[in-house]
Amino acid sequence: MNTLELSETCRADKSSTEHVVFVLTPYERELFLPGWKPGPELAARQSIVDVSLRPRQEWLKLLRDLDPSVLVTAWSCPTLPMEWLDDSSLRYLCSITGSVKPRVPRVFLEKGLLISNWGALISHTVAEHALLLVLASLRGIQGWSSVMREPRNMLEMMRNLKTRRLRGARVGIHGFGAIARELVMMLKPHQVDLSAYSAGVPRALYDEYSVRACASLEELFAETEILIECESLNEGTMGSVTRDILELLADDAVFVNVGRGRVVDENALVDLAGAGRLRVALDVYHSEPLPQDSLLFDTPSILLSPHVAGPTSDTYPLCGRQALENVDRFLHGEMPSHIVTLESYDRAT
After folding, report:
1. Do the domains 6-120+314-347 and 123-304 sit in the same CATH topology, yes or no?
2. DSSP H or E segment with residue 253
3. Residue 135: in which H helix or E strand, if any?
4. Model's pTM, two decimal places?
5. Burial status of residue 318 (CB atoms within 10 A of its CB: 0-12, 13-18, 19 or more)
6. CATH fit for domain 123-304, picks 3.90.980.10, 3.90.198.10, 3.60.10.10, 3.40.50.720
């Protein structure tokens, strides 16, 4: 079957004028909606299409032919064509995944299109992974394999690993979105001294979580022992964590990035980790997949994670279920959850 053709349709309610179009590849359907098929649980006509690897003009023609009032999308959905803006019947776009910037030009939002995404549903999984990387770095996991191959001299082993505890440490968080706020809740039982910085975040939000608000990145990084990077990537944050900023961290500080790779000077991380100034743990990179000749692979004090801080395998179906619930709310005249506002759109990557 041509991937542009309808793979399945269901008219659950012949009186309904709503048309819900699911733009998903077979992989995305199995990942987010395992076993699901269009059915009467949604009171609307439903279609599923796979538009992967199709020319842009065919995508525009498909949208005009189907005339959806609701689109359900994931990663594979192409960008909504600007030519479709004025003659579109689309009223709601339900993204099963996170940022909608790659798929929805800002003007659609400005014109009143209702948009939702997975919201804070995966924030805890990213925060859990960040905490994992922090603890692993503090306990010297980068050196475990080498010391276990050597004769077991406990004193020498501990001297090489330089294991440290989390409790009571000075922790800084760059970014203060949903992931950062989940992290705050996970870190507090460890009685850490918490600081954060993110441009434009109101002071009241920091106060709500009992976190010290810093006035600048320089203040946040200065003498911090553990820095967790989870800021979004935009024009203001691109490359904002420079070599000079990184050098403000305390000696032997831990730097963890679960946000976006291009926020940070990656070459500076290699140099500072190689010199023993920092312990570094990364889940995101300037280029992904990480090139095999990357110096990050050859720097012993850098712990590399294969960009798996996002949804865990048991979280993907929860994202799909939430999307179906949001579509059902919309069809019944209710407001879906996790609405994307112009402010959150602008702050997102």
Report:
1. yes
2. strand 253-257
3. helix 123-138
4. 0.87
5. middle
6. 3.40.50.720
Residues, the chain:
349
306 Cβ partners below 8 Å, 6+ apart? 283
Q: What are the pLDDT digits (tens) for 113-161?
A: 999 999 989 999 999 999 999 999 999 998 888 888 877 778 888 888 8
| Cα gap 218→231, rounded to integer Å | 15
d(CA 289, CA 12): 42
pLDDT in tens, 60-80: 999 999 999 999 999 999 999
Q: Hey, how many other C-beta atoms are within 10 angstroms of the C-beta on 280? A: 27
Residue spans of the domains in the chain: they are 6-120+314-347, 123-304
Using DSSP, state whether 152 is helix, strand or coil: coil
What's the CA gap between 314 and 239, in Å, rounded? 33
Q: What three-state secondary structure class fits 304?
A: strand
In the numeric block, the tokens 């004090």 are attached to: 301
Give the number of other CB atoms < 10 A from CB of residue 12: 16
Q: Give the three-state DSSP class for 281.
A: strand
Structurally, at CATH architecture level, domain 6-120+314-347 sits in 3-Layer(aba) Sandwich (3.40)
Give whole-number Cα distances, 324 to 39, 50, 72, 107, 114, in Å: 12, 18, 9, 25, 15
Rounded to whole angstroms, the Cα distance separating 61 from 51 reads: 12
